[in-house]
Structures are given as structure tokens and as C-alpha cells.
Amino acid sequence: PQNVGILAMEVYFPVTCVRQDKLEEFDGASKGKYTIGLGQDSLAFCTDWEDVVSMSLTVVQSLLEKYDISPERIGRLEVGSETVIDKSKSIKTWIMKLFEECGNSDIEGVDSTNACYGGTAAVLNCVDWVESSAWDGRFALVIAADSAVYAEGPARPTGGAGAVAMLIGPDAPLVLERRYTASHMAHTYDFYKPNLASEYPVVDGKLTQTCFLKALDMCYRKFCTKFQKRSGKPFSLKDVDYFVCHSPYNKLVQKSFARLLYNDYLKDTTSYMSELDAAKFQPFANLSLEESYTNRDLEKVSQQAAKSQYEAKVSPATLIPKQVGNMYCASLYAGLGSLVHSTSDRLAGKRVILFSYGSGLASTLFSIHVRESSTVFSLSNIAKVMDIEGKLASRVEVSPKEFQSTMHLMEKRYGAKDFTPESELNTLRPGTFYLTKVDPLYRRFYART
Ligand code: ACO
Fold it and tell me: 86: which residues sit within 8 A by CB, 6+ positions away?
């Protein structure tokens, strides 16, 4: 099979959201901390009517219906998520409900978990399956889904929730340039979930930021080396049309892109940027790597030098992440969806690089080459199906107080049995799956609006 990659996408996020400027005020944070400091507009969250399973069911069913794909045509299904609902039963098994009805139980794959990285593990597995001798001609389907919630405190505004489904197969418009994929994996305690009785992570905020940027450096350097070795040409940001970055919050995406420019400078101080920008980086040419992560002047200079390129190459991929917040595994792919949404008429022929990061840590930088397609899998049809504008416009804004009381309710619900949802925030778009009850044996039941 040729041109294996992402054929189709669908995106889902809960209708319930809270505005970051209001949250800032409610939390007593200084004005602008969440909106400018973190760069976020609003945050979506699940009430007790929804969870990672219902969001996954919603996004898969919607993708199958909107692209008219019969469930029999799926031969592999993988889920990337770090939202723990059951320590043994995979999220994938709940989704099998949608395939059992037509008698298709011959579907490989289960869940992948490592913080925000699982979705990427799933994408790479599915692409590799289609490219392997095991492929039977059917499509693969990836679901990246999470509900990201933090305990009260500085990390809470970086929550979010949502799911992305992606159909994988040959002749795709979004082709993975698999041969250039570069990874960096290491053992860190930056963000982890050791307390199995709580949905909240233990997070060392400052350490996550450094681990993130270090992983990006490592991946980018390896990526450039692989690219040069395999294509015979050097690689820099000049070869990149768009950059999609895992987005815990937008400020870190801004810093990440600036960091790539700094890497280009270190690689070759004259070739990859204007003389003016190179001169700005000159004072930092001999900084140790360790120092470079904490040097505020370097951060400022890089962000300034990267600003115009950021607007052109990065900002089209930031719409959903800024509006919905960190969707953990789904965040990177919601960024890719945002890019298709904002540039579908001019994306063909372009190269997109994507950086996936999951704390603990697992990270990969990979490349997508975009092709136009005249089928149902055209870029314009993907943008139409996702209907991101429509989904954002139909959201229900709630007060920070209601958001806080929902978080309290969800703390009570986590790991609980024998209940039916009670939140009054029960507006759901048509076609949304929701939880109807959890029975005394912890079994979960779902229905669709
Ligand atoms: N106006 C404008 N900017 C402001 C204001 C203000 N009034 N107040 C603060 N800021 C800026 C700060 O200068 C800082 O920006 P900078 O980094 O460019 O200097 C930013 O807002 C955040 O302020 P901090 O004081 O650094 O915030 P704090 O330490 O309280 O929390 C953090 C931020 C650590 C990111 C926290 O939200 C967190 O722990 N989040 C979860 C971890 C996370 O997302 N890590 C990222 C990778 S791992 C993952 O994906 C989960």
C-alpha cells in the first residue's frame, strides 16, 4: 500500500465550558495569568453524563456515519488514553458495541497508555499494521480521548476534555512520512498518577516544562539527522510549512516553536535564518544546554525571532487546544484537526511536523506530507465533517462556580458504583452518547441522544 496515513478525522468535545478570564478572576489569579500567561481562552469539561467511553463512542459513531463507512470495513481499532475507568477492561472493548451489531469481532488492537502519548502510539501502530504483511485490506481506526482534570491550584486551568477519531489507510490525504519519525523516551517523575483512588495527577509543573522542551530538542535533533541521512538534504524550519504541537496550554506551544528556531541556530548559525535573527541569538551561542532551559533572555529573544513564523506555521493549529484546553492524548490531533479546518484550501502539497509528548516520558516528532484527494477523504470534506466552528458556537458556557461544583461531583463519582448521573448541566448535542447508570457491579451503561 502507498501513501499510508490519516484518511478521515472527527473531533468531539463536551458542550460544557468555562471561560479562562472568568476562571482567573474566580481563582483570585492576577488578571491575564490564564489568558495571556498560559494563552488559553476556555476549558471544556465532562459532567457525570459523560466520560472517556461515551466521548469515544460519540466520535467513532459520528465518523462512521459521516464518511459512510460500514463497521465491517474496520480491521484494527486502537485507543490512546490516560483516563482510567477500569484497570483491566480496555476502552476499546466498550467501543466494540458499535461493531458487534454487524457481526464484526475480528478487530485487532487494544488501548495504549502513557500520559498524553497513547494516541500517537495508536497512530504509529495502525500505520505500521497497514504497511505490514498482516494487513487484510481493511481500515484501521484510532481514537485519542481523555478527560484532563487537575486538583484545585495552579494546574487546574490547564485541564480540558475531548476525543478525536482517525481513519487510517492507504491513499490518504495526510500521509505519514514514517521513515523520518524520531523519538525520545526516558524515565522522569514530571507528571504521574500514582494515587489510584483519585483521578488527579501528581504534577511537578516546572519539571514538566523542562522535560517537555528537552524531549522536543532531542526529537528534533534526531529528526534532522534522520532526514539528512535518508534524503541527503539538511533539515530546518525552512522545510516545515506547519508545526502541530501537543498543547498542555498555548504558551508552551509558543515556547516550543521558538525552541526549534534556537536549535536551527545552534546547528548552523548562518544558513537557516536572517542575519538579523542570527545576531539576536549570538549572545546565547555558548550557553550550556541545561542553562538554556532556564534562561529568560533566551526565551524572550527566541519567541520574538519566531513570532512571524509562529503566526504563519503554528497558530492555524491552535484553535481547538486554546478553546478546549488540554485534551491529553487528543490534544495533538485536535491541533491537526484545527489545522485542516483553518487551511483545507491551501494545505495540499505541504509538510506538517508534529510533536507528541506524554509525561513520564514518551515523545515522538513525526512528519506528514499532505496530498489532495477527490474522494470523500478530501481535505475540504474532512473540514466539513469536523464542523469545528459549529461545535464551538453551540457550546454552553457555565460559571466557574458551577465548574467547581461539577469537579466536586466528579471526585465523588470517580471509582463509584450504583449511581445515575445527576448534574443539571445535561445539554448534549444530538448524536452524543452519555452514561445512563453505573450498576452495583460497577458496570457502565450508555445511550445516545
Ligand atoms: N499576565 C500575563 N502573564 C502572566 C500573569 C499575568 N497577570 N501572571 C503570570 N503570567 C505568566 C507567567 O509569567 C508564566 O509565563 P512564562 O512561563 O512565559 O513566564 C505563565 O503566566 C504561567 O505562570 P506561572 O507562575 O509559571 O504559573 P504556575 O507555576 O502557577 O502554573 C503550570 C503553570 C506549571 C504550567 C501549571 O499550570 C501546571 O502545573 N500545569 C500542568 C502541567 C502541564 O501542563 N505541563 C506541561 C507538559 S506535561 C502535560 O501535558 C500534562
Answer: 442
Residue of the CA atom closest to atom 41 of ligand 1: 155
Q: How far is the CA of 39 from the centre of ligand 1 (A)?
A: 9
Residue 1 carries which side chain, given as an amino acid letter?
A: P
Among protein residues, the one whose CA lies closest to atom 40 of ligand 1: 155
CATH topology of domain 5-448: Peroxisomal Thiolase; Chain A, domain 1 (3.40.47)
Does residue 164 contact residue 9 with C-beta atoms inside 8 Å?
yes
157 CA from centroid of ligand 1 (Å): 9
Terminal-residue alpha carbon distance, the chain: 38
Q: What is the DSSP string of 94-107?
A: HHTHHHHTTT----
Distance CA 28, CA 257 (A): 30
Rg of the chain over all Cα atoms, to the nearest angstrom: 21
Model confidence at 186, pLDDT cuts 50, 70, 90, reads very high
Residues whose beta carbon lies within 6 Å of some atom of ligand 1: 30-33, 36-38, 116, 154-155, 158, 191, 203, 205, 208-209, 212, 248, 251-252, 326, 359
Domain locations in the chain as residue ranges: 5-448
Closest by CA to 163, choosing from 100, 83, 248, 49, is 83
The CB density around residue 161, as the number of other CB atoms within 10 Å, is 29
Residue in 50, 184, 246, 329 annotated catalytic: 246
Question: Which cell numbers in the block locate residue 363?
Answer: 515523545
Whether 50 has a pLDDT exceeding 90, the answer reads: yes
Share of the chain above pLDDT 90, in %: 97
- Alpha-carbon distances of 93 from 78, 157, 169, rounded to whole Å: 10, 32, 22
* Ligand 1 centroid – CA 205 distance (Å): 8
User: In 3D, which of 193, 187, 186 has the Cα closest to residue 147?
Assistant: 193
